[in-house]
Each structure stands twice: as structure tokens, then as C-alpha cells.
Amino acid sequence: MSEQEDPRSEIRGQAFRLLARREYSRRELALKFARKYQDADIEAVLDQLVAEGYQSDRRFVELFVRNRVSQLQGLNKIRFDIRQKGIAEQELEEVLQEQAPDWFDLALQARLRRFPQVDRSDRKQLAKQMRHLLQRGFSMEEARYALDAEPDEPDWPT
Question: Lowest CB count within 10 Å: 118, 128, 138, 153, which one?
């Protein structure tokens, strides 16, 4: 055998090292290997990893959404970021139906974390808080809810 290793076994070994650290989408892995290896070799190895259960776009989406929700990010930002990872919209929708996050509550939590008090007379401050929520990926309706709502309970987490 030659000194150089078979490209498919190199790709497989590198993929295992990457997947041991965190989940990757199929597209992310393909992009990582695209500079050094041929597409046919990459696709063959990725097909094998999917068939063996080592790589799963579904598992990636589940972890991605759970992580982003815990970071108090809104649906618009999650949608944009997941598209960049090469995931189909249908896959995201199925995971969102299973996890069913309350986007209004998340928007309120995001607002309370950054801005515990709302001075409704200060238009400049309200605009700043609105921009913050919109940049985190919440819809206008969710952001308005977060700015208008006040936690009723005295022991509300801030």
C-alpha cells in the first residue's frame, strides 16, 4: 500500500474527530472537506456515516434548536441560522412542533434578562429594547408583548 492513506478513510477519521466534539450538519461536514477531497469521496463517506447513525441532520436540528432556545433567541434568528447550516425547512418545522417553545415567554425572558425595568415614558429606551428583541430573532408581535407584559409574581426570575 502507498504511504498516503485512502482519502475516504482520512475523511472518515476526520469526521469522527469532529463529531466526537459536537453535532454537525451534513452540509457543514461537506464544506469542511471540500477543499482537500473530491466530492464523490466526501459524499460516499457522509452517506456511510448517515447510514451508520453517526451523523444525523435531525439530531443536529434538535440540539441546535434546544441550544438556541436556551440562549433566548427567537424563531427568525433560528430559522436564518439553520438555513446557513444547510438544513431543510421541513426538518426544522418538525422539531419545532415537537419542542413547541413559547416564543412570547422567551421574548419576555430575553427582555427581562437585559432590561429588568421598562420605563414606558422613555421612547428612546423602548426603541432600544425593541431593537434588542428584534435582533435576537423575535417577531414584532412577540417583542411588543415582551415590552407590554409585566411579570405578576414577586419571585419572577430576572
Answer: 153
Q: How far apart are CA 103 and CA 100, in angstroms?
A: 9
Tens digits of residue pLDDT in 13-69: 999 999 999 999 999 999 999 989 998 999 999 999 999 999 999 999 999 999 999
Q: Which three cell numbers stand for residue 158?
A: 430576572
With contact defined as beta carbons under 8 Å apart, do 60 and 27 qualify?
Answer: no
The residue extents of the domains of the chain are: 7-99, 103-148
How confident is the model over 64-92, as pLDDT tens digits? 999 999 999 999 999 999 999 989 899 99
State the SS3 of the chain.
CCCCCCHHHHHHHHHHHHHHHCCCCHHHHHHHHCCCCCHHHHHHHHHHHHHCCCCCHHHHHHHHHHHHHHCCCCHHHHHHHHHHCCCCHHHHHHHHHHHCCCHHHHHHHHHHHHCCCCCCCCHHHHHHHHHHHHHCCCCHHHHHHHHHCCCCCCCCCC
Mean pLDDT of 105-123: 89
